[in-house]
Each structure stands twice: as structure tokens, then as C-alpha cells.
Amino acid sequence: MNRIKEIILDDSGMELVQVGLLIAIAIALGLIFKTQITEFVNDVFGGLKASSFS
Questions:
Q1: What secondary structure, in 3-state letters, does 20-35 show?
Q2: Cα 9 to Cα 42: distance, rounded to the nearest angstrom
């Protein structure tokens, strides 16, 4: 009975679950705001390309 309780209360795999959830949230936000992110990146690189920054 103690072994079952240890298995249930063991949280050594929780870090992996948390990392997986964070990655899933980041991907979801990236898909939701894809057009805004693309416009921002294009504006930044367009501004750098237009200036004489080298």
C-alpha cells in the first residue's frame, strides 16, 4: 500500500509536464498572433534595410 501511495504522490515528472504545457502555450500564441508577428518582423528588418545600418 505504501508503494502505491509513493507512486501517486511522486511529482518527479511534473517538470516535464510543465515544460510541455509552456511549449504548447507558446505555439498556440504564435499561431494566434502569426500575422502580427510577421508584420512586426518585416517592419523591423525593413527599417534596418532602409537605413544605412551595416
A1: HHHHHHHHHHHHHCHH
A2: 49
| Residuewise pLDDT in 10s, the chain (54 residues) | 777 777 667 766 778 888 999 999 999 999 999 999 999 999 999 988 888 665
Which ranges of the chain does DSSP label H, i.e. alpha helix?
2-9, 14-32, 34-50
Predicted structure pTM score: 0.56
User: For residue 33, which of 21, 25, 43, 45 has the smallest C-alpha distance?
Assistant: 25
**What's the rounded Cα separation, in Å, for the pair 25 and 19?**
10
User: How many C-beta atoms surround the C-beta of residue 37 within 10 A?
Assistant: 13
One-letter amino acid identity for 13? G
